[in-house]
Amino acid sequence: MYAPSLARCVRMLIKANGLIAWRLAEIEYAEDKYRDFEGELFGGKVDMYWRETCFCWCFWSLSITIPELENSDAILVRAMDEALGVQPRDMYWSVLGMMNNPWFRVTITKENGNLRFEHPTHPSMPTGWMERVKKAGGDLTNGNWGERHEGEEPTEPEPVQDINMKKDGLSRVIGFEEFKENSCDEKPWFIVNGEVYDGQAFLEGHPGGAQSIISSAGLDVSEEFLAIRESQKYHTAIVPSIDTYP
Length: 246
Fold this sequence. Notes:
The protein is of the alpha+beta class. 13% of the residues lie in helices and 23% in strands. The longest helix is centred in the middle third of the chain and has 7 residues, at 129-135. It is flat, with a radius of gyration of 26 Å.
């Protein structure tokens, strides 16, 4: 649960999807250990005993038997803070950012006598049950975690469209030496997916400042640059086999 007001999480409820009742979990507040401490730490006095706000994560625990997990297809988690703020069941768009603060759900899949637990997503990999639902054409806001309702016809997932960042009709090929000669502060050429881009025209208008482009001069910045829009303006040429050069 995310509490922007720094309110303490006072209630954590857990339920295996095959069960009816919610269960109260034990909550541990790691920062309370500092509230009980009086003394100095790293040359400064620790005086957190008077603070009511909570800055750190809290940790919860609850024992659930394996048979209960075997009879469930998911584990649901919801919380409440001391201001009686609760998490919504489903995701919805809101200026308050509540799209990222609904109940937490971990799916349970039975595979060859084993139980596989799957979180909604992974911070650095395209995995998780939410990604699986989206690939299957599911709607994550349909009130059923993106899964099809009973009797609902399956839908075809929308094809993923590749973003075209190349300028039409441009077929110029740039060698490695020419690329390095033009990769300077005045002419910040850089590479994205084997294509050469000239960021000179965007130095003044870049929201992050010119230095963020200058720092990319002479480098392959594919991962960082793919989120930039209208990159066709700066497409200059193709660089052949840039990864074979030292």
